[in-house]
């Protein structure tokens, strides 16, 4: 295979009885996330190693040139956390920095032809792997699962839905908001 690595696979998820239904879905989503991360490191070549690199390449491919602050906001991260990822991609000639007509100092990160090729290879690999893994899963079940995960994500995105139940136990400083 393309980028086969020898790192260990995530541990198998053990079911815990009597959990709340939503907790069971969250537990499965987390376990799936860890498996997806591990599988991605197994199937992609070295130039696509790392979640942050893959996310940045795909984001630029799908949405076009973006500034580092725009990339950071899309991941709810600080610019300083995204900058080294972009710098690494620039150093490997997968991304180039272009003048930004809307801002004198904040340049636009854009994929190079080589970066586009990497994303297209990742998408081709994804299609093959997802077809193999999804074989036998009914479309209706997949649609229900996607809708459920979307609804849960929306619940977490609506901060007031979960933050209000924490009271003072959250350890957050409400004066920052």
Explained architecture:
- With 177 residues, this protein is mostly helical.
- The protein has 7 helices and 3 strands; from the N terminus they run H-H-E-H-H-E-E-H-H-H.
- The protein has helices at 21-43, 51-63, 68-74, 79-91, 113-134, 139-157, 159-163; strands at 66-67, 95-98, 108-111.
- Strands 1-3-2 form a 3-stranded antiparallel sheet.
- Helix 2 packs across helix 4 (79-91), helix 2 crosses helix 5 and helix 3 (68-74) crosses helix 4.
- The radius of gyration is 20 Å and the shape is globular.
- It starts with 20 loop residues before the first helix and ends in a 14-residue tail after the last helix.
Helical fraction: 55-70%
Give me the Rg, rounded.
Answer: 20 Å
- Share of β-strand residues: 5-15%
Reading side by side through the largest sheet, how are the strands ordered? Answer: 1-3-2
Distance between the termini: 48 Å
Report the order of strands and helices.
Answer: HHEHHEEHHH
User: Unreliable stretches, pLDDT < 50, 5 or more residues?
Assistant: none
The beta-strand count equals 3
Biggest pleated sheet: 3 strands, antiparallel
The whole-number mean of residue pLDDT values reads 87
Task: Please tally the helical runs, counting DSSP H or I stretches of 4 or more residues.
Answer: 7
Shape: globular
* Structural category: mainly alpha
